[in-house]
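Researcher: Structure prediction, please.
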Amino acid sequence: MTRGNSRRIAAAKWAVPVVTLVVTAAIAACGSSTSPQAAPTAMPAVSQPPVTATPPPDPGPVTYVDPVYQPDGNRLADGSGLGTGFIQQITTKDINLGDIPTWVTGTSTPDGDVWVVALADGTVYGYQIPIGGQPSPIEVPGGRLAPGQPPVLAVQGNSVRLATTPANASPNSVPVYLTGNRAAYVDNLQRLTVLEPDGTLWRPDLKVLPDTRVIQISPEKVLVLAGPTDRFPHSALGDNLEATSVVVVTVGVNEVETVYRSEDDVIESVAPLLADVDGDGINDVVLTLSNDREVWIVVASSTGGGVVAISDPVDRLLGWRHLVAVGPLGPSGQTEIAEVLYPDAQGSLRFLSLSGSKLGVVATRTGYRSHEFGTRNFEQAVAADVDRDGRVEVILPTLDRQHIAGVIHGPDGAVDMWSRPLGGTLATNIAVLTRPDGTLSVAAATVEGSLRIWQ
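Model: Predicted structure follows.
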């Protein structure tokens, strides 16, 4: 996955002693026994050219990888096609985990793909798979996680380890790594916290949603959901707390800017999607808004310029709206928003397009379930061109949650392009990694304790 921020770690200095070869020779005595014997003469030492130490190649910067495909919260994968063939034809790689998994994170290394699985109790397993090869277990340094905590990987060359999570971090929040080796995260007292490289902490005067995901705007700015309230006990996303504002924080300085407020409504999400919806070159904030009667989608300016667009509302009593991705999802590559309406039940995948200040539904297909009521796992849907046809599919579980399907918005509406069995019932996120050559791999794990990989 080509995601997260990278920071360079200085390579270790290599010192190699210079080797000098010393050659001595003795000259034997010649002539009769009465001739004096010549004394051995030492030859001068001959120095060989010094052996030049060649340090190993620079492994490059550290990249941080977590189960959300992009640090901006948009589940839109780079790349196209799998490494070994079409997803409809290839043989899967199946790994028996022996327990119930909760999260999967993958990355590409020079020695092959690496997949890391977190089990329900926080145990972590790692597997390396060369392209076209077979999985082999590997050690993933960094210890175990808190139960339910998503694994964040620190990747440098062939080195893959668990990123160090600050001791006071909320297990429901994933840290992001910013310029100057800073980590931004939500602590266990509902505060956005920035950890400096020297160990000092600073916090803006801000109360955030305790399970908000920190979204990265730039190497120095993050976006979080703040102003938690329990005015509407929805409980669909793990608790009764919802956010009422979207806040941009500049790290390194105590600068806070509120770019959107929900007023009497609430933001029913743990993270917005950051993407350019209206094509003006500036990222927008895409949110799910609700109250006790209705739920709708709002696109707001990330610079504080107000509401850009709004969708028609639907009945909140039937469920919520799961935002999946923003990208070139239209029949001719137009920018559209993909959502799953009522994802906890008889969900419908819907594609929305911007027209003026309105978001209208332009294609719908029913029969998907991308969320389980009460869970904080919102990563059971992703957008990627897995079948290498030049069209981005929305990849999500079918209604029985025992298959994943790739759905496009084509000229004739929303169409299933492919469907593949999971070998059980989906338990984790649907994970995608992108290799340096642009090819992809997809993985997901089941309630029955099996990890299935399409390589």
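Model: The first strand starts at residue 6 and ends at 7.
Researcher: Thanks, that helps.
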